């Protein structure tokens, strides 16, 4: 299926991370003009990623700002200008069993993983509706569907992401704006490679596909949901987890 997003402007939060960088590249290859958000303290690594995109022949701009701040998000998106596509991919983990979890660990994860979805979407939704076209794709997680030991904060935030998706989709469906969720399973990335080998082995045994996902698997799903061909899909949660979690 040929996806042509020529002339569309896209912002990907967390756009220089393992998954976000592949989403940026995939959107850029469809002809979209892509801006990758990154944390201000992470500019050196972001510029290294930008150089890798350039080596692939892709011109992707960087926009550093704190997605956990409503004011910073408003200022940055004001500088960027009108957007047709928003992919909310920024996320962090601060894992601990609830009996040992500190309020700051809870708050940090909720602010970055859930508040950021409001902070950015709030800035773009009116313009998208006014122009009669828009795509918002929110990156959740398989652990937002099934829960995970030591991740009450992360699982709560990621479950909240899809609740947000469904509610906003109902608000925007008649305006030509779709809002969808992609829920990755375990993806081959620095995060999963840092897990002890015996734990990785147990996780892999629970994935029917017999492998960890690749960042490109998520990028392909996001790109499809941004396409003209996906205009009748809204409020959906697209699981990309190799069969690890299935629901009716």
Question: How would you portray this structure in words?
Answer:
It is a single chain. With 248 residues, the chain is an alpha/beta fold. The chain has a single domain (9-237), classed as NAD(P)-binding Rossmann-like Domain (Rossmann fold), CATH 3.40.50.720. The protein has helices at 18-29, 43-55, 70-80, 103-131, 142-146, 152-172, 190-193, 197-205, 215-226; strands at 9-13, 33-38, 61-64, 85-88, 134-139, 177-184, 237-240. It has a 7-stranded parallel sheet with strand order 3-2-1-4-5-6-7, sandwiched between helices. β4 (85-88), α4 (103-131) and β5 form a beta-alpha-beta unit. α1 (18-29) packs across α9, α3 (70-80) runs parallel beside α4 (103-131) and α4 packs parallel to α6 (152-172).
Blueprint of the fold:
Elements: E1 9-13, H1 18-29, E2 33-38, H2 43-55, E3 61-64, H3 70-80, E4 85-88, H4 103-131, E5 134-139, H5 142-146, H6 152-172, E6 177-184, H7 190-193, H8 197-205, H9 215-226, E7 237-240
- Give the integer mean of the pLDDT values: 97
Query: CATH homologous superfamily - what is it?
Result: NAD(P)-binding Rossmann-like Domain
Number of helices: 9
Share of helix, binned:
40-55%
User: How many domains in all?
Assistant: 1
Q: Determine the N-to-C terminus distance.
A: 27 Å
User: What is the CATH fold-level name?
Assistant: Rossmann fold
Largest sheet: 7 strands, parallel
Radius of gyration: 17 Å
Shape: globular
Strand segment count = 7
Task: Pick out the low-confidence regions.
Answer: none
Order of helices and strands: EHEHEHEHEHHEHHHE
